[in-house]
Amino acid sequence: MTQPKEIATLPPIEELRRDVVPSPRTGEPRRPWTVFLAAAFGYLALAAVGVSYGIHWWDAVHPESYANSANLLQWVKPEPGKWLSLTLEGAIALAAVVAGGAPAIAGFQAWNGWRWSRWAGLAAVVLTGGWTAIMNNAAFVALGLAVVSAALIFVPPTPRYFSEWAQVRAARPEQYRRPEWIFYGRLPRFR
After folding, report:
1. What is the number of other CB atoms lying within 10 angstroms of the CB of residue 32?
2. Does residue 42 sit within a domain?
3. How far, in Å, CA of 127 to CA of 107, rounded?
4. H or E stretch including 123?
5. Structural domain harbouring 118
6. Which of 45, 116, 131, 136 makes an SS bond possible with 103, Cβ 3.0 to 4.6 Å?
């Protein structure tokens, strides 16, 4: 009988692992430059909404420029100091909070690695666009910053960052296991 021939094979390839390489400083996935800029532009959009509201407020406190301080007031033409003008000022203040907070929240949640921040970025563009429609021309700066922030959330390094965060959040920590036996009292070696 002849000996069977042995088939020559290569050693096994190491198993590829797609673990997330954490940042040595924070222990979280490394943030790409797009996330830094998206958050920064979201915060700048918040500041620009505040500036445009401040310009409106400055014009609104002077009776001669009140009617032209915002597009909404030009459309409705309320008398200064009456209930309609006070209601509109409250609505403008509420719109400032919503329109300013939306891009800042979207940028912050992108910073934290939540995938839904993409939808929040698109909603922020819509809300800031609505703010621009009812306010003065200074609000166009806020709209431009919100658009840039939302666009940066869709740039290719950012979805990979979101998927790394999803992997990190999916990993469960080891659960506490109650010991089978607990010794109460002084340990025998100390008696």
Report:
1. 18
2. yes
3. 15
4. helix 117-134
5. 38-167
6. 45
Burial class (CB within 10 angstroms; exposed 0-12, middle 13-18, buried 19+) of 43:
middle
DSSP bridge pairs for 29 = 22
**pTM as predicted:** 0.78
Q: How far apart are CA 183 and CA 172, in angstroms?
A: 30
Q: Has residue 57 been placed in a domain?
A: yes
In degrees and rounded to multiples of 5, residue 189 shows phi and psi of -70, -15
Residue 178 maps to a domain: no
Compute the distance between CA of residue 143 and CA of residue 48 in angstroms, rounded to an integer. 9
Has residue 49 been placed in a domain? yes
Neighbour tally for 147: CB within 10 Å:
18
Phi, psi of 183 (to 5 degrees): -95, 125
Residue by residue, pLDDT tens for the chain (191 residues) are: 677 777 777 776 665 556 777 778 877 888 899 999 999 999 999 999 999 999 999 988 888 888 888 988 889 988 888 889 889 989 999 999 999 999 999 999 999 999 999 999 999 999 999 999 999 888 999 999 999 999 999 998 899 999 888 888 887 778 888 888 888 888 888 87
- Cβ within 8 Å of residue 18, ≥6 positions away: 167
Give how many domains the chain has, as a whole number.
Answer: 1
Contacts of 112 (CB under 8 A, 6+ apart): 165
